[in-house]
Amino acid sequence: MDFKHPDGQAVAVMLPQCSLLVMSGESRYLWTHGITPRKFDIVQASEGWKVGTVPADIGDLTLNKRGKRTSFTFRKVRRSPCNCAYPSVCDSQHKDTVPSFPVSDSEASKLEEKYVHEVYEEIAGHFSNTRHSPWPRVVEFLKGLPCGAVVADVGCGNGKYLGVGKDLYMPSPVWLTVLQIRASFIVT
Predict the structure, then answer these.
(1) How far apart are CA 118 and CA 11, in angstroms?
(2) CA atoms of 8 and 129, how far apart (whole Å)
């Protein structure tokens, strides 16, 4: 499981099979946490290493192939106001007001900056890390394009399709083609 502190510190914790992790306090509320989807983990080959550290001897690292992983999350429903020790990350302690309809271009730009640009900047790393495998139907579509077809980015990807069609002209990440859209390819 990967943990990230608001100050940028990151710690990866290897969870053994059939393990149970109960988080509370700072680990639960202040640190973000999740299981990054990937096929392999880089782990220590020997026993007795400290979690979250990288050894000086990188020869002691090995790849561990991931198998099927199932995760269950249990939460309590809060019936009273939250008084946790983490108000900076507590949704119920934020006193943000709901934005009203903008009355000027300047106000609209500020709302867009706060609720669009800042949000995308915040989630960009997680978004990219969870979009690691090309979708089979998109790969099939791209491989069916004629040699030299131009493919354009419409702002919906992280480059995971760039190596799919070596004979296609892809100036940036792929989703749609400018010159040809097949009827069998449906964007939802």
Answers:
(1) 24
(2) 16
